[in-house]
Each structure stands twice: as structure tokens, then as C-alpha cells.
Specification:
201 residues, 9 helices, 9 strands
Length: 201
């Protein structure tokens, strides 16, 4: 029985990395996509990998074997395209959505978010500066799927558009996250070569 799913968004084009394939950035000697799958295996019942096209699906095939891999139907719709396809394939009532360029995902934080969203439409971390973390959050599959589809069809490609349309969100403050991850490393992402060098990746 699948209770909780995870969607790894691997479809980004890595513009700030010179269009290098982000999913293949080596983390501790293995591609980040494989690294992320191994982490999430310990906390969810099902992992879905979202890719931008069939070429990328084939490129990542050796690392995603045995997983559900979905391909964007909508072009140039940003992360919402991948989220939509992932939600449509998810078997769990709740889904942890994460970008594939976050190499330090904290299992305890994911567990906390999954627990916090029970009975609600989602659990969304909010930074000390008020910035939301929509690509490191949990959503109830049904409502988020409906709102994401609606947002894309209406041309609202802003990542928070469907989330702000949800009726019952739980907002998670960083102090709550710090109880499990004092340095908030779980939210660190790799966007540039400098990020890789700075984090000794």
C-alpha cells in the first residue's frame, strides 16, 4: 500500500550551470539523481522522477530503473509541468515534491513535513525572510493536482499559483525545521559552479 509518494523534479535545464545536466552532477561519487533516490527510499513508499522530455528520460534511465518516470506534456511551463505529471502518476495521498538539485535532503525534515500535512492540503516551509520553499514541501495529491492543472490551463505558470489556491495549508517556520537540521542544509541547492565548489561537492 502506498501512503506517501515523492516527486523528484529533474527537468530543469541548468542554465546557470552552462546547461549541464543537473541530475548528473556527482555527489559523493554518484549522480545527484541516484543520491536523492537513495535518500528518499528511506522515507516514502514510492518515488516518481519527472523529466522534461524523452531524451532526458533515456539519459537518466540507468539511474531511474524500477521507478516511475514521467515526461512533461506542457513545454515551457516550468516546474509546474513536472509537478502536474508527477501528481498524476502518484499513488500516495500525500506527495513530497523536491528539486533534484538539493543534495542534502534531511530525512527527519521530510518525515516532519509529511506528518505536519496530515489532514491538510499541504505543508510549506517558510524562510526567515518570508520566502517560501515550494520545491521542498508536501502536498495532498488530489487538491494539488486539480489546482496545478487549473493554473497551467489559465497560463499561470508561477510556481506558487496553485499553492495559494489551496484552502488548507500548514506553513512551517524555519525554527521548526532547525530542530532536525540546525544549519538548514536540506534547503541548499546547486545552481552554479560556485555552489558546487563552495559546498565541496
Amino acid at each position: 500500500m502506498i501512503n506517501n509518494s515523492a516527486i523528484i523534479l529533474a527537468g530543469g535545464r541548468g542554465k546557470r550551470l552552462g546547461y549541464k545536466e543537473k541530475a548528473l552532477i556527482p555527489i559523493n561519487g554518484k549522480p545527484i539523481i541516484k543520491h536523492t533516490i537513495e535518500i528518499l527510499d528511506g522515507v516514502v513508499d514510492e518515488i516518481i522522477v519527472s523529466v522534461r522530455d524523452d531524451w532526458q528520460k533515456q539519459l537518466l534511465e540507468e539511474y531511474t530503473t524500477g521507478r516511475v518516470v514521467v515526461v512533461d506534456e506542457y513545454v515551457d511551463a516550468g516546474p509546474l509541468a513536472g509537478i502536474l505529471e508527477g501528481l498524476g502518476a502518484a499513488g500516495g495521498e500525500y506527495v513530497f515534491v523536491v528539486a533534484c538539485d538539493m543534495p542534502f535532503i534531511n530525512i527527519e525534515v521530510v518525515e516532519f513535513l509529511l506528518k505536519s500535512t496530515q489532514g491538510h492540503d499541504g505543508a510549506l516551509p517558510v524562510g526567515d525572510d518570508g520566502i517560501y520553499e515550494p520545491l521542498h514541501a508536501v502536498y495532498r495529491t488530489g487538491p494539488m493536482l486539480a489546482r496545478t492543472e487549473k493554473s497551467i490551463e489559465q497560463g499561470e505558470r508561477f510556481i506558487l499559483a496553485p499553492i495559494f489556491d489551496l484552502e488548507d495549508m500548514v506553513f512551517i517556520e524555519m525554527d521548526q525545521i532547525r530542530e532536525f537540521d540546525p544549519k538548514l542544509n536540506t534547503f541548499l541547492n546547486i545552481n552554479t559552479v560556485e555552489d558546487i565548489e563552495k559546498n565541496d561537492i
